[in-house]
Amino acid sequence: MKKNYVLNMLFFLFMLTAHAQERGSVSGILKDSNGHLPGATIRTSDGKTTTSALDGSFNLAGFTAGECELSFSYIGYSPLVKKLYIQEGKTVDLGVIQLGGSGENEIEQVVVQGALANSQAKALNIQKTSSAIMNVIASDVIGKLPDRNAAEAVQRIQGVSIERDHGEGRYASVRGTPMQWNSTLINGNRMPTSEGTSDNTSGTRSSPLDIFPSEMIEFVQVAKAITPDMEGDAIGGSINFLTRTSAPSRIMKVSAGGGYNGQAEKGIYSGSLLYGDRFLNNKLSLIIGGSYWKRNWGTDNIEARYNFDDFSIQDYELRDYKGVRTTYGVNVGMEYNFNPAHRLFFRGILTDFQDRETALEHTFLYGEESFSQRRREGITGIGLFGGEIGASHRFVEDKLLLSWKLSSYETDMKNRKVDYAGGPGNDTYKMATFKTDAQYSNVASNGKAYLDMDAPNGYTGSTFQKFQPVFASPISTDDLTLNQLIALQTPSFERDKIAEADLRYQLNPDLAVKVGGKYKTKFLRRGSPMDIYINTGGNTTVADLGTTPYNFNGGFMRETGTDYSNVLFDGISLEQLDQLFTEQALTEGKYYHLARNQDDPDTAPSFYNGNEDVWAGYAMAEWRVDDKFDIVGGARYEHTALKYNGYEVKATADDATITPITNKSSFGSFLPMLHVKYKPLENFNIRGAYTRTFARANFSDLNPTERINPLSTVPSISRGNIHLKPTFANNFDLMAEYFFDNIGVASAGLFYKKLENVIYSAQSFQAIDGVMHRITQPENSENGWLAGFEVGISRRLSFLPGFWSGLGVDANYTFTDSKMEVPRYEEDQDGNIQRLVTEEVLPNQSKHLFNTAVFYENNKLMIRLAGNYRGAALALVQGNVENYRWYGKNFTMDLSANYRFNNKLSVFAEINNLTNEGLRYYHGDARRLEQLEHYSQRGMIGINYQIF
C-alpha cells in the first residue's frame, strides 16, 4: 500500500511537470541597499497577486502571451508600475530589482530615511501580508537596541514578556501564558530545550533564549494565531527565529564593543563578524556570521522563608553572586539557485553559553537557632548545535511549489571544568557549607522573628528590606565549622531529527491549496548526580582555611539603604574551595559519603530518558475572494507517541528497592483553523481567526518514576503520569492594523482562549489493598479560560516641522486575565476526604504588560529610550492563598544610541537597566518579600564597520 502511494505521487508529479511550460511566468528578487525585501506586494493588471518571500524572491504564474502590467508596493517606498511582454511558455526573470535607486528598473527612493527605517519597513511588510496574526522585528532593529540575546530582543514585541536570570532575559511568554505553552522555533522547527535552573522551569519544554546571540537572527516572527502549516503546540503563540540563509550581494561587516557592569565592577566585551558573497554568476550565495560576548556580572540577593501558619521568618539569607558569562555563536547559510524554479539551501548553527557562577551566602536559621555560610562555584554550559538542508521546486507553469527540508538540532547542558593549580579540575558545581549554633536577639517573646506587617503585640518588626539579623552573642569565622561538601552536576541532553515536505498548488489567480507533512523524533535525557560529603569528626573552620576579604562591591544591597557589614563574614577563597575537593583531602578527612545517583532511592526519581515521535499532516486553502477579502482555512493533525524510562522506588522497613520502569502512551491532536482578512483600505487590515492549538505535558510530568512510601502516617505514592492529555485551547482572535505610509503601524485586538485539560499537580486518595493512600501526580483539570486585549502604535512624527520631524514613538499595552478550575482534597472535621473545586489564575500570567519607547532618528543619528513593564504574576501555588508565591511587578528602562558617519562606519552606545530595577518574589502579600535581587546598570560603547 505504501509503495503504491509513493508511485502514484511520483506519477502525479511527472504529469504535472510534463505541462510545465504551457503558460508564461514572471520572477525576480526585490532588495534595497540593506538587503532583501520580504513581504512586498506584486500585483498584475488582471488581478493576480503575490508577495515576496523572506529572501525577497517572488514568482507569478499563469500568464497568457502578450503585454501586462506589474505593480510593486512596499511600505516606505513609492509604488512602481512596470510594463512587460510575456511569451507563451517562457519565464521572464526580472533579476534583482533595486529599491531606493535611480535606474530604469529601480523603485523610487524610500519615503522616510533613518538608521532603523529600512529594517522596520521589512518587518511591517511581513506583518501586513502574513496570513497569520503576527508581529515581526528585523535584524537591524535588534542590532540597534541594547539587547544581546534572543529573549531580550523579543521583549520589545507587543504582548511578549520575559523571565530574567541574574538580570538577563532567559524565557519568553506570549500574552501572559505559561512559558511552556509557547513554542520557540528555529526556522520553523521547534528548538530543543535544556534544563532550567529555577524550580519553575526545570523539566519543562521552555527554551532558554540566553544561549542564542541576537546577532544570529535575521527576523523574529511572533505568531499569535497560527496557520495549519505551523507547528500546533502553541497555545500562547510561536516565536520563530529565522537565521540568515543568503547574501543579497558581497558584504563584510565587523563590530566591536566594550563596557562595564556596575554590580560586578568589571568589564564587558563583544564582537561580531558577518561575511557574505555570491559566486558562479550569482547562482551560489554564502553567508557566515560569528559573534562573541563576554560579560562580568553580579547580583545582590536577599531571600526569606516563612512559616505558613503565622508568617514568622524561618530563615533569612544574604547572597552575594559574581560571575562571568560567555556566549559565542556561528551560523552559516548557503543557497544555490539552479534557475528561477529550483533552489537548494543549507543553514547551520552552533552556539555555546557558559556561566561561571560564584557565590558567598549567609543564612540566618531562626527556626533551628543556627547560622551557616556557604561558598560555591561552578561553570554551567549549554550548547546548541544543528543544521538543515532543503530545497524548493516549481512546476506546472510555476503553479506548483514543492518544498522539502531535513533538519537536526540538539542541546547539551553540562558542567564545565574549573581548573586551579593543584586542584581536581573536575566538571562539577562545588559547594562547601560551614555552620555554627547561634541565637538571635531580634525576636518576639515566643522566640520568633517577624516583619512589621506580621508582628505580634509588643514586638517591633521592620520591612523586608530593612530587616537585619542580630546575634544574641558574637560569632566569628573561628566558630564556623565545615559541615558538608557537595559536588553537583546538572546534565541534560535533547536531540530532534525532522523530515518535512510541503506542496502548494495555485488552482487559479485567486485560490491556492497547500498540503504537507512532518515527522520528528526526539530523544531526551535528564538526571542530576550529586556527591555529598558530611563531616563526621573534623573541626576545620573558616579561619583555619584562611579567608579572603568580603567584597562588598560598593556596599551589599545598597539599594535598600541597610548596612549588613556587621553580619557578613569573610569567606574562604575559590582556590581553597577547590582544594577541599582534591582526592587527598576527601580521603584524609572524616566524611560520610552519599552518592546521589540513579542507584540512590532519594535521587533515582530525577533520572529518566524518553523518546517522542510526532507525525503531523495538514491541508489548507488560501482564497482571495476579491481585492478586499482573503480567507485561509484548513486543519492540522499531529500524532504523538511517547516512551519514557525511569525508576520505581519502594520504601521498606529496612531499605528501599529501585526497579527500572518503562511507560508508553500516544495521543492525537486535530486542529482546525480559519483566518479571515478584510482590507477596507490598502493599508488597513481587519483580521479574525479561530484556531485550535495545544501544549504537550512537561517532560518532568511524563517521567514514569514512582515513589512508594507505605511507612508514613498516611501511606503515599508520588509519580509522573504518562497518560496525561495535552492541554487544548480554542482560540478566538480579532485584530485591526493600520499601516502608515511613513513606516509605522497602529493596532488593536481582542483574544479569548477556552482551555481544556490544563495540567496541574494533584493530590487524591485511593484505597489500595484496603489501606487509604495519598496519591500525588500531575492531572488534567476541569476547565479554564484566558482573555484580554492589546493595543499598540509605532509612529514617526514626520509631520512635525524641521528638527522635530525626527521624533517617533513606539508603545503597546496588553491586558490579560485567566481562570483555571483546580480540584483539591481536604479533610473535614470528621476525618472524611472532601473534593473541592477552586478557581486559580494561570501561573506566570501577568495582567498588565506594556512597552514604551521615545526615539529620535535622522540619516545620521538614532537615540532611543525604551521601557518594559511586566505586572505581578502567580509563580507557585503552595498551601492556602495567603501563602502563594508571586512574581512582583517589574519595570526596566534602557537607552541606546547610534551615529552613522557614512555608509561604512557607525558608533553605538547602550545602557541597560537605567533605573536599577530589581527582581522581586513575594509571599501572598507584596510587602512580604521572599526574594529581592539587584543588578545595577551595565553599558557598552562600540563601533560597526562595513568593509565592503
Automatic annotation (TrEMBL):
<keyword id="KW-0675">Receptor</keyword>
<feature type="domain" description="TonB-dependent receptor-like beta-barrel">
    <location>
        <begin position="465"/>
        <end position="914"/>
    </location>
</feature>
<dbReference type="Pfam" id="PF00593">
    <property type="entry name" value="TonB_dep_Rec_b-barrel"/>
</dbReference>
<keyword id="KW-0813">Transport</keyword>
<dbReference type="Pfam" id="PF07715">
    <property type="entry name" value="Plug"/>
</dbReference>
<feature type="compositionally biased region" description="Polar residues">
    <location>
        <begin position="182"/>
        <end position="207"/>
    </location>
</feature>
<feature type="region of interest" description="Disordered">
    <location>
        <begin position="182"/>
        <end position="208"/>
    </location>
</feature>
<keyword id="KW-0998">Cell outer membrane</keyword>
<dbReference type="Pfam" id="PF13715">
    <property type="entry name" value="CarbopepD_reg_2"/>
</dbReference>
<keyword id="KW-0798">TonB box</keyword>
<keyword id="KW-0472">Membrane</keyword>
<dbReference type="InterPro" id="IPR000531">
    <property type="entry name" value="Beta-barrel_TonB"/>
</dbReference>
<protein>
    <submittedName>
        <fullName>TonB-dependent receptor</fullName>
    </submittedName>
</protein>
<dbReference type="GO" id="GO:0009279">
    <property type="term" value="C:cell outer membrane"/>
</dbReference>
<keyword id="KW-0812">Transmembrane</keyword>
<dbReference type="InterPro" id="IPR012910">
    <property type="entry name" value="Plug_dom"/>
</dbReference>
<dbReference type="GO" id="GO:0030246">
    <property type="term" value="F:carbohydrate binding"/>
</dbReference>
<feature type="signal peptide">
    <location>
        <begin position="1"/>
        <end position="20"/>
    </location>
</feature>
<keyword id="KW-0732">Signal</keyword>
<keyword id="KW-1134">Transmembrane beta strand</keyword>
<feature type="domain" description="TonB-dependent receptor plug">
    <location>
        <begin position="128"/>
        <end position="237"/>
    </location>
</feature>
<dbReference type="InterPro" id="IPR010104">
    <property type="entry name" value="TonB_rcpt_bac"/>
</dbReference>
<comment type="similarity">
    <text>Belongs to the TonB-dependent receptor family.</text>
</comment>
<dbReference type="InterPro" id="IPR013784">
    <property type="entry name" value="Carb-bd-like_fold"/>
</dbReference>
<dbReference type="InterPro" id="IPR037066">
    <property type="entry name" value="Plug_dom_sf"/>
</dbReference>
<dbReference type="InterPro" id="IPR036942">
    <property type="entry name" value="Beta-barrel_TonB_sf"/>
</dbReference>
<dbReference type="InterPro" id="IPR039426">
    <property type="entry name" value="TonB-dep_rcpt-like"/>
</dbReference>
